[in-house]
Design brief:
Helix content is about 15%, strand content about 35%. By secondary structure, it is α+β, with helices and mostly antiparallel strands.
Amino acid sequence: MAILPGLSGLKVTIQVGNRDACEYTDEESEGKNSSPPYVSKFIEAISGACFAVKLHLTSDFPYQSNDLKFGIYIDGEHLMQLTRNEKQDQGLVQYSKICIVEGQYQNQPEGRVFRHFVFSKLIVDEDAADTYQQPCDVAGLGEIVVKIWRVNVTESIMQHRSEQKPCKKASGPISEKALKGRALSHTTSLGDPVSIVKQAHQTTRTYRWVHIDDVETPLATFTFKYRSLDALKILRVIPRSSMPIPLDQPVENLSAEELRELVRRQKEQLKSQSMKTGIKRERSADSDGGDKLEMISSHPPKAGRVSRRRVDNTVDFVDLTLD
């Protein structure tokens, strides 16, 4: 559960498979005093798993008298915003208020449906058409961001429930060049549509507000960088397991993470071989100017046995010692 230092009572969590995701430290943002307040964590993404954004306000939140606006951004796209009207809450936040955003509502010809947020494996293909046309399409990939502003609600309107802003982010394969070396493993998508039971009055409350916090400087920002387990290990976000990644297979069958691991191992092997070669050369240089020692036999001669060694073509030397 991500918590901002100095701002109590406000927590944001990503749930994966209906459980709070385990969070890992983002070393790049750890210990930095940012303005506006900002926190960043890594989480594990699992292909095909549904995820949700959980917002939690508790009684020690210092701005209970303010209306709040929550903006949710997934892969760089602003998908939705929620408003907490202090008057409509009628003091419920004195105990606790939790809001869980699991996906999007959509209007389809067969009726209204709901589609869950889902993690999907990012396909990297150099030969694929470039569906990510703008730098911003790639910059936000692999991130779930929640921003909170203080606002003053000026009007509250009940109206017919409309379709939420559809997801317009690019999909499909992406080239390694477009990633610019970023260790991305997953993207997000919407799951299969689930029919919603038709209600007699499908209405929703819409708010209009005036910002207290500037749009560019929200009260707080929570960023969650989602990666596969292998990618988290390669990034050194979590310790590598004692079991090595199996790389004894054709190169074309290796994933991007496994290819990076293969290159890392090859570099370590080359460095190790280079160090051993340097040591051998140094020993060879030291022995050139000294006496040479030749080992004839590692076993002493048996008693009574005569050992002969040819010195030249005409003289035989007989050694009668046993040492």
